[in-house]
Write a structure and sequence with these properties.
single chain, about 500 residues, alpha/beta, nine-stranded mixed sheet, nine-stranded parallel sheet, 19 helices, 18 strands, globular
C-alpha cells in the first residue's frame, strides 16, 4: 500500500484540482481521501507537496518506426513523405525496431505520456518478431500501448490514380518495383501475431492498422474487419489526412473515404480514425453514430501542410476525440502537452464564435479519457477509485505555474514537459524527479547514433533513387490536390 500525500489532484468530474491524498494498492487507485486522515504508519508514503497530479496523458496516434527519423524532414507534404518510406524506414534490424520504439517511449514518459496508440510499420508484411520487439520496448519502459501493425496491399504509387504513368523512365520502373505483399499474407501474419500474443492486455494490447483505405483493396479491408471482430480488437486507419486523399476517394470510389469504409462495415466502437482533417459533416455524423473515435493530430497536420481538423465539429457529432502527436518523422516530437495546446489554439482560427473554441478542459479530457477510450483501455485516463495508478506529478515550482492562476489552463497552455517531475504507471515510478528508472538514456543515445550512421550508409542508394522521384511526385500530387474540394462543417451547439 502506498500513500501519496500533499498534492493537488485533478478531479475528472469537475476538472478542478483538490487537495487530496491517494491510496494506491498494487497498480490501482484504491481511494482518494482528505489530506492527513490516513494514520497507518505501516503504509509506504510518497510526499507530493507542491505537486499537481494529473492522469497520464494518452497519445492517440504514433509510429514506433519513425522515432529514428526525428528531424530528418522539413518542407514535405504527406505525399512527399510517403515517397521517402522505401529508404527512411528500410533495412531495420530487430534491434533497430526495438531501439526506435524505446526512444519514443523515453520521450513520451519524460513529457508525461503513459500510453500510446502505435501504428508500427514493417514492410512488405508485419512479423511476430518485429511486433514483439516494439511490444518489448514499451514493456521495458513501463508504458502502456496498443500496437496496430500498419499494412497495405497497394504501394503509394499504385494507390494514386495516374501517378505511375506520369513518372518518366527509369523512375517509373523504380517505383513499380515497390510491391506490398498480397493481403492474404498480411492477414495470415496478423493471425500468427495474435495467436502468439504473450503480453498482458493490461499493458500491451494488439490492434490492426490497414494504413489508408485506397492503399488497401476492399478484400483486404473486409478481411481486417473480420479478423478484428474474431479477436475483439480495435483498428486504426489514416482517414482524410490530406486533401489529395479526399480527392482520390472521389475518383476511386465516387464517395468519401469514410462512406467507403462504412459501406464495408469497418466503423464501430473499436475503430479509430487518425487525422480526420478532410471530413465533411456527413463523415463526422457516420463516425459519431457508429461510436468510433478520432485521433486529432494537429502538429503533424500543420507541419505536412495537410490542414486543420475540426475538433468542434467532431465533438458536435458525439465523436470521442483523442489527441495524438503522429510519428516523430512527421511531427518531430512526441509531446502531447504541445499537441493539446495546438489543438485548442487552431480551433480559434476556424471562423467560429468564441463560445465554440476548444477549451482547456475539453482538450485535456481528450488527451486523457478520450485517448484511453480510443486505445481500448477501460481503466486509465482518470484519477479515480478503481483506475490504474497512471499519474503525472507536475512541479508547482516550475515557471509554468509561477504565478499560479488557473491550474487547468496552465497545464494546457503553459506546460511543455519541463514541469514534469515524476511519472507513475501502474503504481511504479518510471520517471523519478526527472530521471528515468527503467531506461538507460545515455546508452540509448550511443546506440541511436550508431544506428543512424549504419542505416544512412545501407540506404544511401535507395535514398538517391527516391530523391530523384521527389519532384515528379510533388508536381503530380500538388496538381491533383489543386482540384476543388469543399469540406462542410457542423456549426451547431455542443
Amino acid at each position: 500500500m502506498l500513500l501519496i500525500h500533499g498534492a493537488r489532484v485533478l478531479r475528472s468530474t469537475s476538472f478542478t484540482f483538490e487537495p487530496l491524498d491517494l491510496i494506491v494498492e498494487g497498480d490501482t487507485i484504491r481511494d482518494l481521501v482528505p489530506p492527513g486522515i490516513v494514520k497507518d504508519a505501516s503504509m509506504t508514503r510518497l510526499d507530493a507537496t507542491d505537486r499537481l497530479l494529473i492522469p497520464g496523458l494518452v497519445n492517440g496516434h504514433n509510429h514506433a518506426q519513425a522515432t529514428l527519423g526525428k528531424g530528418v524532414f522539413d518542407r514535405y507534404t504527406l505525399e512527399l513523405y510517403l515517397n521517402t518510406v522505401p529508404w527512411s524506414a528500410a533495412r531495420r534490424s530487430l534491434e533497430d525496431k526495438y531501439l526506435s520504439a524505446i526512444l519514443g517511449a523515453a520521450e513520451m514518459i519524460r513529457k508525461g505520456c503513459t500510453a500510446s496508440y502505435d501504428m508500427f510499420a514493417e514492410f512488405p508484411v508485419p512479423t511476430v518478431e518485429g511486433v514483439n520487439a516494439v511490444a518489448r520496448a514499451y514493456a521495458d519502459a513501463g508504458m502502456r500501448a496498443t500496437i496496430a501493425p500498419m499494412m497495405a496491399d497497394r504501394s503509394f504509387y499504385e494507390a494514386i490514380p495516374g501517378l505511375l504513368d506520369f513518372l518518366p523512365e527509369p523512375m517509373r520502373s523504380d517505383a513499380a518495383r515497390i510491391r506490398f505483399s498480397p493481403h492474404e499474407e498480411s492477414i495470415a501474419a496478423c493471425r500468427k501475431i495474435l495467436s502468439a500474443w504473450e503480453h498482458s492486455h493490461d499493458q500491451i494490447r494488439p490492434a490492426l492498422g490497414p494504413t489508408i483505405p485506397h492503399h488497401c483493396t476492399d478484400a483486404f479491408l473486409i478481411a481486417c474487419r473480420d479478423l478484428a471482430r474474431d479477436h475483439d480488437i480495435g483498428m486504426q486507419m489514416h482517414i482524410g489526412e490530406s486533401k489529395m486523399q479526399a480527392i482520390v476517394a472521389q475518383r476511386v470510389y465516387g464517395k468519401s473515404l469514410v462512406a467507403q469504409i462504412d459501406s464495408l462495415g469497418l466503423i464501430g466502437p473499436k475503430f479509430c480514425v487518425s487525422h480526420g482533417v478532410w471530413l465533411d459533416d456527413d463523415d463526422r455524423a457516420r463516425i459519431g453514430e457508429r461510436g468510433a473515435s478520432i485521433s486529432h493530430n494537429p502538429g503533424s497536420n500543420m507541419k505536412l501542410g495537410a490542414g486543420m481538423a475540426d475538433m468542434r465539429g467532431m465533438l458536435g457529432r458525439g465523436i470521442n476525440v483523442a489527441i495524438g502527436t503522429d510519428g516523430a518523422s512527421s511531427s518531430d516530437n512526441l509531446n502531447v502537452f504541445e499537441a493539446m495546446r495546438t489543438a485548442s489554439y487552431i480551433s480559434r482560427v476556424q471562423d467560429r464564435p468564441v463560445e465554440q473554441w476548444i477549451s482547456s478542459r475539453e482538450v485535456l479530457r481528450a488527451a486523457t479519457e478520450g485517448g484511453a477510450r480510443a486505445l481500448g483501455f477501460e481503466r486509465i485516463g482518470r484519477l479515480d477509485v478503481g483506475y490504474k495508478a497512471d499519474i503525472v506529478f507536475l512541479d508547482l515550482a516550475s515557471l509554468n505555474y509561477t504565478p499560479l492562476n488557473d491550474a487547468v489552463n496552465q497545464v494546457v497552455f503553459c506546460e511543455d514537459g519541463t514541469g514534469v517531475d515524476s511519472v507513475m504507471i501502474g503504481g511504479r515510478l518510471v520517471l523519478e524527479h526527472g530521471r528515468h528508472t527503467t531506461i538507460n538514456l545515455p546508452a540509448l543515445r550511443q546506440q541511436a547514433a550508431a544506428a543512424i550512421e549504419r542505416l544512412a550508409a545501407v540506404n544511401a542508394e535507395s535514398r538517391a533513387t527516391f530523391d530523384r522521384l521527389q519532384p515528379f511526385v510533388g508536381q503530380y500530387c500538388s496538381g491533383l490536390s489543386a482540384s476543388p474540394y469543399h469540406v462542410h462543417r457542423f456549426c451547431g451547439p455542443h
